[in-house]
Amino acid sequence: MVFVIQMIILLSFFSLWEVAGRFNWIDVLLFSYPSKILNLLYMKLIDGSLLPHISTTVIETVIGFFLGTLCGTLLAILIWSSKILEKVLDPFLVVLNSMPKIALGPLFIVGLGPGYLSIIAMTLAITVIITTLVVLNSFREIDSNYIKVVQIFGASKTVTFMKVILPASIPTIVSTLKVNVGLAWIGSIVGEFLVSQQGLGYLIIYGFQVFNFTLVMGSLFIIAIFATIMYQGVAYLEMRLNK
């Protein structure tokens, strides 16, 4: 039922957009309309110019997504394992999280070069800190009674983490994956804005430069499709883990 309602809303939106574009109710130069966008994407798909851009951005995003989640979770585990380290790093994490990540772009470009590494680094800068903060906060909120029970039976800190902390934090980690889907796409696209000569972010910038807003909307349309696929993959993982 929910899926049907979602499809009705989606189809209604695109139908209204199509009608508004064809009858010039909106500025077609700026907003285009679905059939025009699909025709442009089809032509670029046929001539082979679209797939390299899609594959570049998808690869960068997927790598940044998994590395960001993994590094953020490992950093949260490291901080949790040491109270001194937690107190030392806590203010730094807060400051880093509030810092505008796009400001780090020029540093990445100079330090890592104008390529994949800079874009992935931008994605990591956006995903790692928020992952660390969310997962670490989840570790802190575990019911202390559960921890006391295993410690009564002589469990070490490692065993306590593996038997109590980590299993209880799985829902939060999966939720973080959902958030990181969007953040990873933001990181990749922003990175391509700054440095790339290929990718969907590059197509968006190029479209703005030549006033081809149909290309811009088409790139956003592709991003929405692949972001949805990634999100549904995480949702499926969540369903499996809950079972």
From TrEMBL:
It is found in: Cell membrane. It is a multi-pass membrane protein. Signal peptide: none annotated. One of its GO terms (cellular component) is plasma membrane. InterPro entries: MetI-like, MetI-like_sf. Its main location: membrane. GO terms for biological process: transmembrane transport. The chain crosses the membrane at residues 58-80, 92-110, 116-136, 183-205, 211-237. It comes from the Bacteria. Residues 54-238 form the ABC transmembrane type-1 domain. Keywords: Cell membrane, Membrane, Transmembrane, Transmembrane helix, Transport. Belongs to the binding-protein-dependent transport system permease family. This is ABC transporter permease. It comes from Chengkuizengella marina. The lineage of its organism: Bacteria, Bacillati, Bacillota, Bacilli, Bacillales.
